[in-house]
From TrEMBL:
Organism, as annotated: Candidatus Sungiibacteriota bacterium
InterPro entries in the record: Epimerase_deHydtase (IPR001509), NAD(P)-bd_dom_sf (IPR036291)
The NAD-dependent epimerase/dehydratase domain, residue ranges: 4-254
Family recorded in the similarity comment: Belongs to the NAD(P)-dependent epimerase/dehydratase family.
Gene3D superfamilies: NAD(P)-binding Rossmann-like Domain
Annotated signal peptide: none
Pfam families: Epimerase (PF01370)
Descriptive protein name: GDP-mannose 4,6-dehydratase
Length: 330
């Protein structure tokens, strides 16, 4: 049975990945400090599975890595501060936590006694290249992996997130070369689904529909995103980890289907059976890109993976979960 570590494993992607790997019989260690995740029923059910262990601690602290142990076959490095509001509110923490946990995991991985041929995977982000558009006025869409990583404006706190992902990619590439270990990098593109927190566009729209807010605010209505359902997403992440052809490579994960935010809101109105009398179209936050669409031909070519879930089907499951788990007011 493979032994797997997931850093940030109680968060959105980590939880769904852990659930998938636990169902396949892997021995799992999840580490999380619950900065952005909860000890909820879903997590308790996961922790009830034999061979799943939780270590609740702060991965910026190097002493924690002694408790993590050794003998791993696979390490998924997911920890980080995700959620656009945090990029604007606490950019210094986004940077500190992103960079220090990445350096810590690499130092631990290269020196700890993990299994021969053990592999580590880094979750970067589309935000590492997104500001190329702002800086140079152009970005190929769909966007392939080999575009330059760019920070358009170091004074815009939004790019704290893209900046630490850029640094993280460099660390992974050059540590793996220097210390001769296996690694891959993935860049998720707008994953969605149950248990994704409350700061993303889909849970925000669902929450406002549930509250029947009218006029109904829609932020960045003419922006587009390609939404990838979480079960497809974690299948892709595991495939990149385990495929023979992905070592040393960087992979975009997403769908080829581009959706206008205004159309997304319409779909949610229709799935939830309520529509406001009036919509109130608002600007998206400063630095937000107009179009985001990954070129996912590389992951398909190297592993055969492609997203399967239709947006309507994924939205239906997501809405059902959020209606059963409404946001608790602050
Ligand atoms: N969800 C997406 O669409 C998306 C897109 C691009 C990149 N990513 C990247 O994928 C990774 C996972 O994203 P997610 O959506 O699951 O985010 P998430 O916020 O749900 O999960 C991150 C987890 O890390 C934990 N954490 C934060 N600081 C910690 C610390 N110091 N020590 C231990 N745990 C800590 C949080 O509590 C949280 O559970 C992140 O690195 C994120 O930047 C996600």
């Amino acid at each position: 049975m493979k032994k797997v570590l997931i850093t940030g494993g109680a968060g959105f992607i980590g939880y769904h990945l852990a659930k998938r790997l636990a169902a396949e019989g892997y021995e799992l260690v999840i580490v999380d400090n619950f900065f952005h995740s909860a000890h909820d029923d879903d997590l308790q059910a996961l922790l009830a599975v034999p061979n799943v262990r939780l270590l609740e601690d702060d991965l910026t602290q190097s002493r924690v890595w002694e408790k993590v142990g050794s003998g791993f076959d696979e390490v998924y490095h997911l920890v980080g501060i995700n959620g656009t509001k945090f990029f604007y509110e606490i950019p210094h923490e986004v940077l500190r936590i992103g960079v220090s946990t990445t350096l810590n995991v690499l130092e631990w991985f290269r020196s700890e006694n993990n299994k021969p041929g053990a592999k580590i995977l880094y979750t970067s982000s589309n935000e590492a290249y997104a500001s190329a558009l702002e800086a140079f006025g152009k970005l190929p869409i769909p966007t392939p992996e080999n575009v330059p990583l760019v920070i358009a404006d170091t004074y815009n706190p939004r790019w704290s997130y893209g900046g630490q992902k850029l640094i993280g990619e460099l660390f992974f590439i050059h540590y793996a070369k220097a210390y001769n270990f296996r690694m891959s990098i993935v860049r998720p593109h707008n994953f969605y689904g149950p248990r994704a927190g409350y700061e993303h566009v889909i849970p925000e729209i669902v929450g406002r529909v549930a509250a029947k807010i009218d006029p109904f605010p829609i932020f960045g209505a003419d922006d587009t995103r390609s939404f990838c359902y979480i079960t497809d997403a974690v299948e892709a992440i595991q495939t990149v980890m385990e495929s023979a052809h992905t070592d040393g490579g960087t992979y975009h994960i997403g769908t080829t289907h581009e959706t206008l935010i205004a159309d997304l809101a319409e779909k949610i109105f229709s799935l939830m059976g309520w529509r406001p009398q009036k919509t109130d179209i608002k600007n998206s936050p400063e630095g937000s890109v107009k179009r985001r669409l990954a070129d996912v031909s590389k992951i398909k070519k190297d592993t055969g993976w492609e997203a399967k879930t239709l947006l309507d089907d994924g939205l239906e499951k997501t809405i059902e979960w959020y209606l059963a788990h409404p946001k608790v007011p602050d």
